[in-house]
Amino acid sequence: MVAVNHTDRGALDVFADKYWAGDVLPQGGGAAATCCYPGLTDWRKPVTIRWTWDEQDAKGTTPARPAEPHMVVSHFPPGGPSRNDDMYKDEANLCIILRDADKAELAFSVTRSGCFDK
């Protein structure tokens, strides 16, 4: 799992269901991955994404707002990750993308850094 944050606020304890995906800095992520979201056979089931917005401002110097826990229900892209005979072309990375204060999406990527471009 790869957490990506397209906001100006840090996110702590990002989870997809009960699986921890790490913390992510403002406008950051896509470089590191945590393990693992178990393989599924039914990619149609919803996923609960939870995180807490960090209370520091973008520079990390003063509290901007109180820490805020958030939760959204999201769905995997239709059909699940693409598979390829070449394991280096499999979409093996689950991207958890924080878009704004109350929006998170799921995507798949061949590379961790590819998650940031989603």
Textual characterization of the structure:
The chain is an all-beta fold and 118 residues long. The chain has one domain. The protein is 0% helix and 40% strand. The protein is built from no helices and eight strands. It has strands spanning 2-5, 11-16, 19-24, 28-29, 47-53, 68-74, 93-100, 103-109. A four-stranded mixed β-sheet has the order 4-1-7-8, with no helix packed on it. β7 (93-100) and β8 (103-109) form a beta hairpin. The chain is globular, with a radius of gyration of 14 Å. The mean pLDDT is 87.
Question: How far apart are the first and last residues' alpha carbons, in Å?
Answer: 14 Å
Output the structural class: mainly beta
Major sheet: order of its strands? 4-1-7-8
Q: What's the total number of strands? A: 8
Mean pLDDT: 87
Low-confidence stretches: none
Helix-strand topology string: EEEEEEEE
The biggest sheet amounts to: 4 strands, mixed
Strand content: 35-45%
Specify Rg, calculated over alpha carbons: 14 Å
| Portion of residues within helices | under 10%
Output the number of helix runs.
0
Shape: globular
Count of all domains: 1
What is the quaternary state of this protein? single chain
